[in-house]
Amino acid sequence: MRYFFFSIIFLLNAFVLMSSLHAGIFTYYPVSVFLSPVAPPVTFAGSGTYPTIIGSANTSAVVEVVANKALHVYDYDVGGRVVVLRVVDQSLTNNSIFSIQWVAFVTNYTDPSGVGIALKEIQVNIGTSPYFVSIYYYGGNQVYFHGPGTPTYVYPVDMSVAHVFNITVSRPAANRLRISYYVDNSLAYTYDYSIPEGAAVTIYSVVGGRYDTSNAYDLYVDDVRMRSVTGVITSEDFEDGVDDFFVNSYSSGNAGKVVVYYTFPKIFLLARNNDTKTYACKLIISPLTAPVTASFYVRNSTHTSTSIKIKNSVIVSETSEVLLGGGSYTYMYLNITAPLTTSLPITFNLQFVYRVYDSDGVTVYYPITVEFG
Amino acid sequence: MKAERKLIALLAVAALVSIVNASVFVYYPITVILQPTQPPIIFLPGNNAGGQDLYGNRIGVLIGDASTSLTITVHPTYQTNYYKNLTVIRNTDTTNSYYVAIRVNTHFNNSKITEAKLRIYYLNGATEIEITKVDLLTTGTTSWLGPLSADGKWFVDINITISESGGSPDSAPFTSDSASLQLIYSPQNVERAP
Questions:
Q1: In the CATH hierarchy, which top-level class contains the domain B41-186?
Q2: Tell me, what's the ipTM?
Q3: Shortest Cα distance from A19 to chain B (angstroms)?
Q4: Structural domain boundaries enclosing A62
């Protein structure tokens, strides 16, 4: 009993001692936070490319990207090759015209030996001799017009987006061929080539890809339109999921062709700087897992950002920054592909991010939803 | 005669009671000595104090003369606005650490504000280690944070999200709003701040 009382007294003493050791002193400092909001200095505008819902203050966007189909020509094997080909085998007589066009876009291009890739090529037989009329890509922002009897013509063009390439071969006279190259429906180059009077001229085939090995690339082709020498139009948009045009194609190694869901790189949204100050802007994306390959990037009038990259999951989650000067626009681009077996739609949750240039004091985030399907 | 006896008895009782309640006053000396010290915890301007805000405004960070009061003024717009490194909470005591709490006495109350957080963190090299996020949309006091080590620094960011709903690109989401807080510190973390 005595021990019990001693214990109680000891504990009470200990409690009192601890209380005195931790005797509270509390110091209070006042802090005030004032918000003085402003109208949004940067606002969204639709690109006109896709159906877009812009928020009431133009600071959010939902973009519906239609999942069209295209032909994916791929060569992932520097020892392999793929050639998409259609044998035409038509005689080009006096005053007749043959033309072939399609939309083409090359990406992931590697070509250590410089063999190039044919964005479009026509084999023209004059007599028994084959000649090749072509538009080639070797990298960079230019394409090369090849043809019989003339030096190669180099044509500058922004290859970060798709273009409509067209080659037209006509025979205005019995001893002359006229070869014309069009880019985006504008004549880029034309010349006449003399041939023996009355020579047999045959449009033998139209081709894309590359017979030579040693390069690697992704080539996307869509909206094929061929005008035969008799004026018959053959077209292919791949929307039925089948390639009925390049029926004579061949490949070897890890290379081939397949119809896929695809969007060529296109502007999907614009942002306008309503301020006189310059802002730095970029895109970031939330995590995503889906059987899809996609890229998103931003451009101003002079610079293109690096890309957000997605291949089944997010590989690179944000772009680099580009500057958005006072009163100017920046353009947001997307490029999406997915196998036809993919369950659509796929939702991409992005944010348009901007900050006052040369400062990280304030950063503003606007939500963007891209529905692909 | 009978009445006189009663009166005498009552007077006798009254006298007796007066004697029993006679006051005694004892005086002990107590001395309260104030020996003020310089404030161990102070506010310092962050890297972006006075920096560029939206539409050419400035990020206002006003620190009192003794660095023991703080007023922040920012100019957000619709959606999420992140203000970084506005102020620094500095422990100038080179030998003692202090526990810190944040009390929100008056929260923002504009219904368009969907999120308002004051974020406190310290740096481990270039890595930000978050200590807490204080919700500026509710009143209350955080638990003790830290301690803020001797000669240590904490950094303060603010994150404001304003709903776009019903808004216009040509006008501000609303006119103004404010929150009133206290930074509280103590050398102990056993007792909660009163």
A1: mainly beta
A2: 0.88
A3: 9
A4: 42-68+261-372
